[in-house]
């Protein structure tokens, strides 16, 4: 069915352009892989400026449903894609940084998602998927590996297992949640007292998780996945709570000192000292 573009109202133009494109996606007239007409053709159809059209296209690119290729060749222009992982990860990371979610919230979400994915992987994962995950675990076992690379491979491992479970949404959410705290986990890895021992301990758990999945022990894999997440991620939650408690004590002390100062000024006020 051909896509029929309609002019849009001029108020909040880029949002109306965005809405029109979304409607074409929801109606099934635009699908992943479809290419939008060039800006010079699409802007007049909408009845908007090319700058307003570009703004709408940038929003779509940010949320992972469109990719724009500059240039004049056959591959140039904007194309509809399905790329939710990066977009959701970026969104969650920003909201986490803004305080929309606590570390405890993120940890509990990870536990719920990964218990499900490891249990399902024990039923549905194929050898090829598990072989790829095993190769990642092997790379993490190299003695000279640094926290940054380990953290990257760790994310890959957990997302690979989620993908092997056969549930695309679980895989996307696992990737997004893990991505949201990646900088914090990296900083924690870099600050551990004994990096070699920490790396070996975490990777021993990865190896055991893979063994349990390969042998079909889904519940045991789910239990170990939860222990694995709560073990290291849980220390970050404890650190966050300790910092929050310290902030509350500092704020409480400041308030008490302010109240004491106010009381002293009241006694020394217009009525004079008592």
Automatic annotation (TrEMBL):
Pfam families: FCD, GntR. GO terms for molecular function: DNA binding; DNA-binding transcription factor activity. It comes from the Bacteria. SMART domains: FCD, HTH_GNTR. This is GntR family transcriptional regulator. Residues 236-274 are annotated as: Disordered. Keywords: DNA-binding, Transcription, Transcription regulation. Residues 11-83 form the HTH gntR-type domain.
């Amino acid at each position: 069915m051909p896509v029929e573009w309609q002019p849009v109202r001029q108020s909040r133009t880029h949002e109306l352009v965005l809405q029109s494109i979304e409607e074409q996606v929801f109606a099934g007239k635009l699908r992943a892989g479809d290419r939008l007409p060039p800006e010079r053709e699409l802007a007049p159809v909408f009845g908007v400026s090319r700058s307003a059209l570009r703004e709408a296209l940038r929003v779509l690119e940010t949320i992972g449903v469109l990719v724009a290729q500059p240039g004049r060749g056959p591959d140039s222009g904007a194309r509809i894609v399905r790329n939710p992982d990066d977009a959701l990860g970026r969104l969650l990371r920003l909201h986490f940084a803004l305080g929309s979610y606590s570390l405890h919230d993120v940890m509990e979400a990870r536990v719920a998602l990964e218990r499900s994915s490891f249990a399902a992987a024990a039923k549905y994962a194929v050898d090829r998927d598990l072989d790829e995950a095993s190769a990642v675990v092997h790379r993490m076992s190299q003695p000279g590996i640094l926290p940054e690379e380990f953290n990257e491979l760790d994310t890959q491992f957990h997302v690979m297992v989620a993908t092997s479970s056969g549930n695309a949404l679980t895989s996307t959410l696992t990737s997004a949640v893990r991505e949201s705290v990646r900088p914090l986990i990296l900083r924690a890895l870099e600050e551990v007292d004994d990096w070699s021992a920490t790396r070996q301990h975490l990777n021993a758990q990865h190896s055991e998780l893979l063994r349990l999945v390969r042998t079909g022990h889904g519940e045991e894999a789910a239990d170990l996945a939860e222990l694995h997440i709560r073990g290291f991620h849980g220390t970050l939650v404890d650190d966050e709570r300790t910092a929050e408690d310290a902030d509350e004590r500092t704020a409480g002390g400041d308030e008490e000192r302010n109240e004491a100062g106010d009381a002293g000024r009241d006694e020394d006020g217009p009525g004079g000292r008592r």
